Amino acid sequence: MSILSISSPSSSSALLSNVSFSSKSSPFITPPLQIAVAKSHKKRQTGVTMSMEAGIGVMATKLGMMSFFEPTGKVVPVTVVGFKEGNIVTQVKTQATDGYDAVQIGYRRVRDRKLTKPEMGHLQKAGSIPLRHLQEFRLQDVEGFEPNQKLSFDELFKEGDIVDVSGTTIGKGFQGGIKRHNFKRGLMTHGSKSHRALGSIGAGTTPGRVYKGKKMPGRMGGTKTKIRKLKIVKIDKELNVVMIKGALPGKPGNLLRIAPAKIVGKNIPKS
Q1: 218-220 and 58-69 beta bridge pairing
Q2: Are 54 and 267 in contact, with CB atoms under 8 Å apart?
């Protein structure tokens, strides 16, 4: 640490007269450090911003997987997605009232006693029925949306569209390195002393610790995942189901969030 020596009182007063401190600053902190502290304080105040969606989406329920035969005879593995009562607009947030533009949607009707009084009051304010799940879609423009508006999947999407699907993956519990991270096992012969063990997890004296983020055994699955750019193969209005190409997160009955696929520079801004 460097020590600042001041020769005379006159020079010290002249030095302090050129430095202005804010109410939160301290004369013992150098100006560059004050700027860094101010920036970090401002960063903490702003918080994490929600990502922008490419368009309004819906919530749905995973039903299972099957094979879909195209007119050419090609077999396509698809996930069948159904819809329960819901996908109703429960709140429209604007820049003036909430600081950002977003549409809140409710899904899956439940009994009144399944919700708390604040939740019931929020839904009654919009004139909506009791709904279990509430999710927001942050949009660039919320014009045309109003509370208690019913959203239909076939009006928002069509066959051939590309969508992003989010959901919670199947929980696998506590798993080892081979299943969780696809590690190789050792030889299973008699002379081998390492079969499914993890092995070395770092050096000894230096650094004398295990690095953060080290791939080790632990809880696997049960996390929110988004699978991007999946194709809508078929929309069946009679059965009220949608077939999406590929596998979707979770087991049958899992809640899914379907939104238009985000393509930077095309349907969402680059910044």
Answers
A1: unpaired
A2: yes
pLDDT band at 35 (very low <50, low <70, confident <90, very high): low
Structure tokens at 238: 């009679």
Read off the pTM: 0.73
Asked whether residue 236 carries a pLDDT value surpassing 60, the answer given is yes
DSSP state of 49: P
Measured CA distances, 271 to 52, 102, 235, 265 (Å): 10, 18, 34, 9
Name the residue among 227, 226, 263, 231 with its Cα closest to residue 55. Answer: 263
Q: Which segments of the chain are extended strands (E)?
A: 58-69, 75-82, 86-93, 102-109, 131-138, 162-168, 173-175, 218-220, 224-236, 241-245, 255-260
pLDDT of residue 52: 78
* Chain CA centroid to CA 60, Å: 17
Query: Looking at this protein, which amino acid is placed at residue 268?
Result: I
Residue 73 scores a pLDDT above 90: yes
- Mean pLDDT, rounded, for 130-137: 93
CB 65 within 8 A of CB 89: no
Q: Percent helix, strand, coil in the chain (nearest 5)?
A: 20, 30, 50
* Rounded Cα–Cα distance for residues 108 and 87 (Å): 8
pLDDT of 45 > 80? The answer is no
**How far is residue 58's CA from residue 166's CA, in Å, rounded to a whole number?**
11
Integer Cα distance of 90 and 103 in angstroms: 8
Contacts 24+ apart (CB under 8 A), 72-80: 76/233, 76/245, 77/245, 77/246, 77/247, 78/233, 78/234, 78/243, 78/244, 78/245, 78/246, 79/243, 79/244, 79/246, 79/247, 79/248, 80/241, 80/242, 80/243
